[in-house]
Amino acid sequence: MSVWIIIPVRPFGEGKSRLADVLPPAEREAFNRRMFAHVLGIATAVVPPARILVVSRAAEVRDLAKAAGAIFLEEYGHTLNAALAQAAAYARERGAAAVLSLSTDLPLLETDDVLAMLDAAKGASVCVIAPDHADLGTNALLVSPPAAIPYLYGENSASAHRQAAEEAHLWVAFVRRPGLQRDVDTEEDFRAFA
Fold first, then answer.
1. pLDDT band with cut points at 50, 70 and 90 for residue 19
2. Which of 40, 56, 163, 182 has a Cα at 20 to 30 A from 66?
3. What is the mean pLDDT of residues 18-41?
4. Mean pLDDT over all residues of the chain?
């Protein structure tokens, strides 16, 4: 299966604003940069860089993506779901059989975590969901074929993605692994990671 990986990235200075009480702006920006570099490095260890799409509004993100050999897409909209839809359409037009979106706030992500997502996607017409540690949000989402369901990131997105996949008659699988579940959204998450 020809899988493309999508990594949506906010400008580093804008990301993780909920960590403002524990990280001053410069440290938060550096933390966001490190997490993106980590996730991008894991992605390039699994698929060729020419099948990795980094979508963002930030010039610095563009430069880092291109330095890694990934494809950079200038984000048209200002929402995560729109950015993912844009990238999925780009991949589909270039022959992708599936797209795997990865959140950038996964500091414990390992190559085996991404491989587990791919392993769970046997055959076409499938949706593989990696929920967060609370089993509410979605930290990674593999969809085959691309754009078979809309991106529904937001509150209770894991359940929303499952429901959309079932309505689209996709086979649904969940992958729960520490590297995929432990995102960094809150002060409590950051302290647990640190």
1. low
2. 182
3. 83
4. 91
Q: What is the CATH number of domain 3-193?
A: 3.90.550.10
In terms of C-beta distances under 8 Å and separation of at least 24 residues, what long-range contacts does 45-52 make, across chains too? Answer: 45/111, 46/5, 46/111, 46/114, 46/115, 46/118, 47/3, 47/4, 47/5, 51/2, 51/3, 51/4, 51/5, 51/91, 51/96, 52/4, 52/5, 52/6, 52/7
pTM across the whole model: 0.93
Do 10 and 54 contact (CB within 8 A), yes or no?
no
Q: Which residues share a beta bridge with 36?
A: none
Q: How many CB atoms lie within 10 A of CB 105?
A: 23
**What is the spatial distance between Cα 105 and Cα 20, in angstroms, rounded to a whole number?**
15
User: Which range has the top average pLDDT, 26-35, 117-126, 172-181?
Assistant: 172-181
State how far the Cα of 168 lies from the Cα of 126, in Å rounded to an integer: 10
- The Cα–Cα gap between 111 and 107 comes to 12
Kind of pairing between the strands at 98-102 and 138-144: antiparallel
- The pairing of beta strand 3-9 with beta strand 52-56: parallel
Task: Please report, to the nearest 10 degrees, the dihedral formed by the alpha carbons of residues 8, 11, 14, 19 taken in order.
Answer: 60
User: How far is the C-alpha of 126 from the C-alpha of 121, rounded, in Å?
Assistant: 6
Q: Reply yes or no on whether the pLDDT at 81 is more than 90.
A: yes
Domain ranges for the chain: 3-193
